[in-house]
Amino acid sequence: MKKFFFAAALSAAICMSLSKPAAAQQNAHVQFVKGNISDKISAVKSSGDGELAKKAVDFVIENSKLLKNDRDLAALAVAGILSYPAQEHQNDPAAVYNDFSAVFYGLDDMNVRVSVLDKARSLFAQKPYAQWTAFVNSYLSQKISSGGAADESVKKSISALGDIGDGSSFAVLYAILRQNIWTDLQPAANDSMSKIADKSLNEIFDAADKAELVELKQLSSIFVKNDKLSAALRSEIAEKLLNRSMILSGNSSSSQDLAIFQLEEAKVLAENKWTRAGSLAKDYFAVAKSAYTGKFLTSEQFSQAISCVELLASRQAVAPLSEYLDQMNKAQEAGNSPDKAVVLAVINALANLGDKSSFDCLLYVTYVKDYPEEVAVAARNALTRLKW
């Protein structure tokens, strides 16, 4: 009998404990229905009930035209948005998007807009929905076009695109740099562009195709010099930027800035052993040689360029390097001594390549008068490394 009464008491206690959350939830719904806006806010915040959050959003949408600038309605919107159940977005993202965008534009309140952007970001992480990307792209484009100081919603939009952006977002973020607006937010825009680089490669290439040197430097700073990106992605972009910079060399008088920029991109390609750019590297040798002749590159810098060409162009580099060594040999014979560092760089490059077609020009070095002994020794060593 005692066991029976104990079991009954325990069962009653369990039922009472289980009924408390349900009762509290019901009370919250009653408070929401019967109360004023402040009561509704309190009910949503205290209950943690997703259904109540949905009711709050519906209430806001229904009354937004009448109370567009009402601070209490805005506070209810924020409470509803932040408590909105993520499962609803997984089940029907279009419906959630429509409701949130209605709230976003229905109320003229910064806290509401920031809350929508934050929530959209978290919902997108659970279930990507392209319309959110288009939404943020469109809003940020509007803010860029209208000008003026950047508010908190602009900052949130820029950072959000780093997570939910795609190729179409690149142009929006890039406009902040090109138009030189919101200079204090340019680092954030750069960061977001770098985060979506793998989704924006075509757009980055399109921008590079139209870029002048200043813009090429910006693109290199964002992507090529960014260690957070993969070596392959950085190299692919560096190859494109180097190619564009070489076109600029052909279209205008060269400059030291341009020559140094080209060398920096070539170094990245060489460091990452991006041999896919071999043909481009061979063409770069002629550009670097012209820059050196025009005194836009020092002998040390040109020697670095030669090493890059050797690493990237491989066999394609043998002919132009051999031809250039032959030219320097003849200049030495004529009494116009070439820079020793450059001669050594070419000889060492040919030694590393080991192609037998460079035999004649290397042998020629050993017979030319007045070459430093160091040059002759390097040539003899290079000859021993040729593959027959």
Please, could you describe this protein's structure?
It contains 21 helices and no strands. With 388 residues, it is mostly helical. It has helices at 2-34, 37-47, 50-63, 71-82, 86-91, 93-106, 110-126, 130-146, 152-164, 167-178, 186-195, 201-209, 213-224, 231-251, 256-271, 278-293, 299-313, 318-333, 340-353, 359-367, 373-384. The chain starts with a helix and ends with a helix. 38% of the residues are buried.
From the N-terminal CA to the C-terminal CA, the straight-line distance is 104 Å
Q: What share of the residues lie within helices?
A: over 70%
- How many DSSP E strands? 0
- Number of helical segments? 21
What's the SSE pattern? HHHHHHHHHHHHHHHHHHHHH
Return Rg in Å.
33 Å
Mean of residue pLDDT values: 90
Segments where pLDDT lies below 50 for 5+ residues?
2-6, 12-20
Strand content: under 5%
SS class:
mainly alpha
